[in-house]
Amino acid sequence: MSNTAEIIFVPLNKLEIDPLNVRKTYSQKSIEEFAASIAAKGILQNLLVRKAKGNGRYYVSAGGRRFRAALLLVEQDKLHADHPVPVKVISKEEAQELSLTENIMREAMNPADQFEAFRDLVDAGQPVADIAAKFGTSENIVKKRLALGRVAPELREIFRQEGMNLDQLAAFTITDDHEEQKRVWEALPSYSRHAHSIKHALAGEDVKASDKRLRFLGGLDAYEAAGGAVKRDLFDDHSGGYATDIALLEKLVAEKLAAEVETVKGEGWKWVEIVPEIDWQALSEYSRCYPHSEDLTEEQAEELERLEARYHELELCDRTEETEAEMFDLGEKIGALELITERETYALEDLEIAGAIVSLHGNGAVRVDRGLVKPEDLCPENSGEDGTSAENSEEETPAGAPALKHSATLLEDLTAQKTAAVRLELANNPDVALAAVVHGFLLRLVYTDYTAPQYSALEITITSTGLEGSMKQPDQCATMDELENLAEQFGSHIPGNPADLWDWCIDQHKSNLMQLLAWAASRSLNAVEGKFPRPNAAVHADQIGAAVGIDMREYFKPTADNYFSHLQRSSIQAAVAEACGEDFADGIKDMKKAEGAAFAQKALKDKDWLPEPIRCGMPTHEQQTDVDMGNVETLPVAAE
User: How far apart are CA 197 and CA 151, in angstroms?
Assistant: First the structure.
C-alpha cells in the first residue's frame, strides 16, 4: 500500500467486516468504551478497507473495533447510519497482512502516561464525570487513575522504568504526602516492598476499615459521618481505607458500648465491665454461675396441654377459614408458653455475686460473657459453721455405727466393672450413644469454661483450629462470616450451664442431634497445608468434599487480588495455559506481573478453572460407595 494513499469518506452503512480480518473476537465492554469515546470525539483514526461486491461497498480489513463501536452508536440512535467514516483503500493482497500488523505491532500506552494524562485533564478543569463519559469508563476508575497520577513523581518514574509494579504504586495512594511516600519506599528493604507492607507503613497507627471497632460502629462511613478523618484506599474494594483519628474512634465505640452495658446492667449483675480484647487466660480465672431454664406453673402446663389437644383436634377436621384462624391463634398461644421453657435466667443469689464482661467479636458484634465471679467474691459453697462440708455433715453416720469405706484398689475395680457394663449397653443403644458423643463435643466447642469437658465420661476430644492466621485476607472471606453466624445460631439454643447439657441432649430429637454432630464435625475439619502438611488429611478432605457434593466455584473465583498477584509471572502463565491453552497464555511472558495478573483474571472470568490446592476432586471409581441395597452388609449387633 502506498504511504500517499488518500483518505476518503465512506458512509457507515456501506461498510462490513472483512472475512480476511485476522481479529475475530472483541470484548463487548471494550466496544462500549470505544463507542463512548467516538460519541465524544468522533472517529479519530481512519479504517483500512478494500473494495467489496456492490456499488460503493467496502470490507473493513483493519479497525474492526472502531467499526463495531460506530454500529453500536447507530443502534443507540447516537449516530446516523450513513455517518461518513474516514478510510484508506488497500488491495486484497495487503488486507490480511496489514490486519495482522495493526493488531500485533500496536504498543499499549504506558500506564504512567495514562495516569498523568487523566490528572492533567482534571487539573485543566474537566469534571471527573465528563472524563468517564468521554472514555467509556466509570467515575471510580477515573478516580483511581487520578490517584495514581498524584503519587510522588519520583515513584511514578520508578514505576515507569519497571522498578515497581502497579500494586506497589497503588499502595502509595492512601496518602497525598509525597515526602512520606518517598520515605517509606526508601526505608523498606527491597525484599519487603510488597503492597501490603507499603500500606502498613503509611497507615502507621491508623485503623483499617475491617477492624472490629469500625464494623461495630457500622463501617467507615458511620465513623466519617461523626467527624472522623479518613485515609481512602480506592484500590481496596472491600475495606475502603483507614480511620486516622484513633481518639475519636475509641470515644464513639465507648459511647455505643455504654448503651450495651446499660442493657446488661439492667439484668441485675453486681458488676459489668467493658474489655476491648478478651484475654482467654484471664477469663478462665473467673468462677462461673450458670442460668437455669424456667418451668411452667401448674396452671400454665394445664393450659398448654389443653391448647395442644384442641390444635390436634382441629388438624383432623376439614379446613375452613374459621378453623384456619383458630389454629393460627392456638399456635401463637402454644408458642408463647413454649418460649417460657426455653428462657434461661440466673438465680437472684448468683446476680448478687457475679458480673458480666462486654467485648466485641472479630466481626464487630457485641459479645457478653455473663455469670463471671471474681475470686474475692467467691464464697465457700455448701460449708457448715465449723468449716466442714454440709454435705458430709448431713451424711454422718450415727455414733458407734460402722462406716462403709472402700480402698483405692477396690474402688478402681468396682468402677472398672461399671464402665465395662455401661460400655456394653451403650454399644447397643445408638440413640443414647449419639447424644453422648454430641454432648462431649459441645462441651469442648461451646463453653469457654475450661472445666466444662469434665462433665463428660467419654474420653473423646475434638479440636478446632482457627483459620484466620492461614488466610491472607480473612476479613474478605464471606464463608468465615457464615461459619461464625452458624456457631452463634447453634450456641443460642444450648443451655448456658454445662451441667444442664446432658439432660438437654437426651431430650433432643435425633435429627437435631445429627445436625449438631455435623456442625461439631465441621468445626474439627482441617485441610490446611501449612509448615507441617498432613497429606492424608488433605486426601480425606477431598473425599468429604466429594461426598457432600461441594462445588468450590460457588466459594472461590480466582482474581488478580486474591490469587494471580501472589504468583510468579511464570506461574500466572502456567495457570492460564492450564485453563485456556498454551498458545493463549504465551503472551504473558512479555507482560509485567501486574498486567499478567489482570490478563489472567479477565481470561478466566467465565471459565470453571480453579487452582489445584482449592479443588475438591471427585473420588475414584474404587473409592465410590456401592449403595445398591442388595449389596449392603448388615453391621453386627454387640453381644448382650
Answer: 17
The DSSP bridge partners found for residue 231 are 242
Q: What are phi and psi of 357, to 5 degrees?
A: -115, 130
At a CB cut-off of 8 Å and minimum separation 6, what does 141 contact?
Answer: 132
Give the three cell numbers for residue 461.
476430644
Q: In angstroms, rounded to a whole number, what is the distance separating the alpha carbons of residues 21 and 100?
A: 8
The percent of the chain in helix, strand and coil, each rounded to the nearest 5, is: 55, 10, 35
Of residues 297, 322, 299, 295, the one with CA closest to residue 330: 322
167-195: pLDDT as tens digits: 888 888 878 888 888 888 887 777 667 77
Tell me if 209 sits within 8 A of 241, measured CB to CB: yes
Bridge partners (DSSP) listed for residue 263: none
Judged against a pLDDT cut of 60, whether residue 387 lies above it is answered with: no
List pLDDT tens digits, range 588-634: 888 888 888 889 888 888 888 888 888 775 443 333 333 333 333 34
Domain 7-104 has CATH 3.10.450.40: no
The C-alpha atoms of residue 599 and residue 586 are separated, in whole angstroms, by: 12
Residue 155 near residue 181, CB atoms below 8 Å: yes
Distance, CA of 59 to CA of 21 (rounded, Å):
9
Bridge pairing between strands 366-373 and 355-360: antiparallel
Are the beta carbons of 277 and 359 closer than 8 angstroms?
Answer: yes
Nearest 5°: the CA angle 178, 116, 102 is 145
- Residue spans of the domains in the chain: they are 7-104, 111-250, 295-342, 420-526, 554-614
Task: For 389-433, list the strands marked E by DSSP.
Answer: none
Sign of the four-CA dihedral 477, 483, 489, 494: negative
pLDDT score of 572 more than 80: yes
Q: For residue 374, how far is the Cα from the chain centroid?
A: 37
How far is the CA of 310 from the CAs of 140, 306, 325, 331, in angstroms? Answer: 63, 6, 13, 10
pTM for the whole structure:
0.41
